[in-house]
Amino acid sequence: MTDPNVNTPVPDDDDDDGLFVAATDTFPRRNDMLNRLVVIYPTGEHGQRLSNDGDPYDWYSSYTVVLDDGPEGWQAMVPDDDGDMTPNLIPSVDQEGAQVQVNFQWSASGIVSRIQANLPDRQTGKPGSIVGRINSQKNRIKGRSPSWSISKPTEDDMAAARKYTVECRAARDDAQAKALEKQGGDAF
């Protein structure tokens, strides 16, 4: 028996049944949610990373449901943190319905502080929810990324959110199941 040649290219055909799906260079970001109405259901999963300056910052995983396209409607291109225009990776809610972002990680302090107050219940795993519009403003400290937060919803925002009760309940239930799954570990 001969050894297979690992350098032989894999044939490019449709018979692989999704076995080889190419990775993408990008993924949905907070910038894709700027000015859009969202509800965040924390899963309890969290950790720390180091900033470019070497300072630690917290991140929290969530099920984040995008509930509208924002006051200006859906934008095909959105600015990144440097102001460069990039494709919006979260589809239009008006055209495709509520968009659930699974395992979306938030690290902005204005959102993390709210997540920390709404972590899943230790007994039931049921998370709190945070509803509002994602917003951003220039950082007061020169050279740092913009500050991100979530604003208090208006009555109209709450009416818009309630149109997606089924999708939100499913996302919250999934976040709850994930929290319960991790309950034996250090999820909280």
Write the layout of secondary structure elements.
Blueprint: E1 37-50, E2 56-66, E3 77-79, E4 85-87, H1 93-96, E5 99-106, H2 109-116, E6 130-137, E7 147-151, H3 155-162, H4 165-182
Antiparallel strand pairs: 1-2, 1-6, 2-5, 3-4, 6-7
Question: What this model shows, in words?
Answer:
- The protein has 188 residues and is α+β, with helices and mostly antiparallel strands.
- The protein has one domain (28-182).
- 20% of the residues lie in helices and 28% in strands.
- It has helices at residues 93-96, 109-116, 155-162, 165-182, and strands spanning 37-50, 56-66, 77-79, 85-87, 99-106, 130-137, 147-151.
- It has a 5-stranded antiparallel beta sheet.
- The radius of gyration is 20 Å and the shape is globular.
- The model is unreliable at 1-8 (pLDDT under 50).
Number of strands: 7
Shape: globular
Helices, by number, come to: 4
**Low-confidence region ranges:** 1-8
Q: Strand portion, in percent?
A: 25-35%
Oligomer state equals single chain
Order of helices and strands: EEEEHEHEEHH
Report the biggest beta sheet as strand number plus sense, adding barrel if it closes. Answer: 5 strands, antiparallel
Helix content bin: 10-25%
Give the terminus-to-terminus CA distance: 53 Å
Mean pLDDT: 88
Number of domains: 1
Strand order in space, largest sheet: 5-2-1-6-7
Class from secondary-structure proportions: alpha+beta
Radius of gyration: 20 Å
